[in-house]
Design a protein that fits this description.
The protein has 297 residues and is an alpha/beta fold. Helices cover 33% and strands 15% of the residues. It has ten helices and eight strands. The chain has helices at 16-21, 32-42, 58-66, 94-97, 115-128, 130-134, 153-165, 186-195, 250-263, 281-292, and strands at residues 5-10, 45-48, 73-77, 138-144, 171-174, 199-204, 224-229, 269-274. Helix 9 crosses helix 10. The two termini are 16 Å apart.
Length: 297
């Protein structure tokens, strides 16, 4: 079997310090349209981060589809409420705000667990993404679970529930707590994802020698392998304030590329997505990774 394709990109093309740094976008790319068009000339895939904070409009998704060439793929972060995060209710679409209790509308943060409301949010997200699907530019809906989402039977069941919420769209899941990777649970977790045809995301993040973060464990549970690379700087990792920037060094990129190429021997596509977006580091590392993933002719 021929090795699978490797696709490389970043987890945001709009992060503020990336834009302000001037390290990636040329001087003429001063509008959202120009920036996405420029990005799509460098890479063939990207993640939409804004959908975690706010369900996009259909017009926005149509614009994304129109500004990118055929074959370009968008992966979309699931709206925060669907992964157990608090949301800002004021940023909900009007029809969803109308479903909230009056006392919830004025809150700065709201936790949503009511199944009917979660279903309505998921349906609104899917409707907004229809232009990407129609353009054949829709990749995964990324369920990035919080560090407090640890291994337990109820959370395994919730993964199935997430797949049902966005039925018809492929999902990929990222765990941020080490309990999923202990010797007691890792094989069960991977087998569960394979059984339910859910794509596992290999996460790279700082390590503290405990379970507060997920270890780097390259694997694939479907025909698609997916690596999300957050950087390895542990300072301020668990803080609400962004930590210092992290630029992957060449030896680290070579290590990750080796794993990606090995995954590519059994996966039809391997995505390598850099989430160290601050100050343009993700774009720099993604361009460097392309060189490291070249197979011998």
């Amino acid at each position: 079997m021929a090795p699978g394709k490797i696709r490389i990109g970043t987890c945001s093309w709009t992060e503020s310090s990336l834009i302000e740094s001037g390290a990636f976008y040329p001087r003429g790319a001063g509008t959202p349209k120009a920036r996405l068009k420029f990005y799509a000339r460098q890479f063939d895939t990207v993640e939409i981060e804004s959908s975690y904070y706010q369900i996009p409009s259909i017009d926005m998704a149509q614009a994304w589809a129109g500004r990118t060439p055929p074959g370009f793929l968008f992966h979309v972060k699931a709206f925060g409420a669907l992964t157990g995060h608090n949301i800002d209710p004021r940023r909900l679409p009007e029809e969803l705000r109308g479903m909230l209790a009056p006392g919830d509308l004025g809150r700065e943060e709201l936790h949503v667990a009511e199944p009917g409301m979660l279903k309505a949010m998921a349906q609104a997200l899917l409707a907004s993404l229809e232009p990407l699907r129609q353009a054949r530019k829709m990749g995964f809906i990324i369920f990035q679970f919080p560090p407090w989402f640890g291994y337990k039977k109820a959370n395994l069941d919730y993964l199935s529930y997430c797949k049902e919420l966005v039925a018809g769209f492929p999902i990929a899941v990222e765990f941020r707590h080490g309990s999923w990777f202990t010797s007691q649970h890792r094989d069960e977790m991977l087998a569960f994802l394979k059984e339910h045809k859910i794509t596992y995301i290999t996460c790279d993040e700082p390590q503290y020698g405990n379970l507060t973060t997920a270890p780097f464990h390259p694997d694939a549970t479907t025909g698609i392998a997916y690596l999300r690379l957050h950087g390895r700087n542990g300072d301020g990792w668990h803080s609400d304030v962004p930590g210092d920037e992290y630029l992957y060094q060449e030896a680290e990129l070579k290590e990750i590329a080796r794993h990606a190429l090995q995954l590519g021997e059994r996966a039809r596509t391997t995505f390598i997505m850099f989430n160290n977006c601050r100050c343009g580091y993700a774009a720099q590392n993604a361009l460097e990774m392309r060189r490291h993933c070249q197979r011998p002719a």
